[in-house]
Amino acid sequence: MALFALLVAILVERLRLLPNAWQFDALLSKYHKPLVNEQQKQSLSMVTLAILLPAAIVYLLSWLVSGLLWGSISLALWVAIAVLCFSHNAQRQAFKSYIQAACRADPQACFHYANELDSSQCLDSVNEKELGEKVGQSVAWINYRYYGAIALYLIILGPVGAVLYCTVRFYSEQSRKSEVSLPVVDSLLFVLDWLPSRLFSFGYVLSGHFRLAISTWLPLALNPKSSARDMITHVAVAAETLPESSSAPICLQSTIALLQLSKRNFILLITVLSLMTIFGVVS
Hints:
Layout: H1 2-15, H2 24-31, H3 44-65, H4 72-86, H5 89-103, H6 107-117, H7 128-178, H8 185-207, H9 210-222, H10 228-239, H11 253-278
Helix pairs in contact: 1-4, 3-7, 4-7, 5-6, 6-7, 7-8, 7-10, 7-11, 8-9, 8-10, 8-11, 9-10
């Protein structure tokens, strides 16, 4: 079920078939308002309830439909959750706008859309060449945070794991945007990212320049305090040779190289999942 659900979710996401209003973050933004007031400090119990409730509902639904119609209802639930969690039109549109701005040689627009793509990254005092690498790192990070980590949790823990990860990620982003600290959110996200970031970044080692990437991956992976972003971005940069010159606009040179690496890494993930499905390791 994991492989089929993942393939359907990727197809729907690529074709942008799911309306923005039905995507996970949009649905969760409506759900969390009665539970979490961003204008005041939140209690640990209320934040914990807000985080766990969506995953608990999915777990209950999975239990209720288990075995119905020879498992077809369970399969439909897997597909629905995968599609909801994988669709991110806002990030895709921001990246498309960045590419278009670079192609028409508009540096100001490039910086604007780069900030829109990844607001957590500081782009002050960088030139166009550095911007290309920064956006390339953002692409690698977003590919993990919005796709790779979800795929891994879907494979390992099913729809419940995918929903739990997406919920914690959502509240972490809300906390950063509203500048209101939410108890336990960032710590929980660090824990949830700890193993998947190491697994996913190892895919960069296998998809890129092994010798350079493994020498970067090992110290970070063996350091229990390494952040997920450092794991992903540092290993991605080490795994791919960034071109010094190219026919592409200067803002795109490093970006395209790291985008291609991210695509190879995700293809590797799908290939490994296919083999695991064939040999019965995952269902």
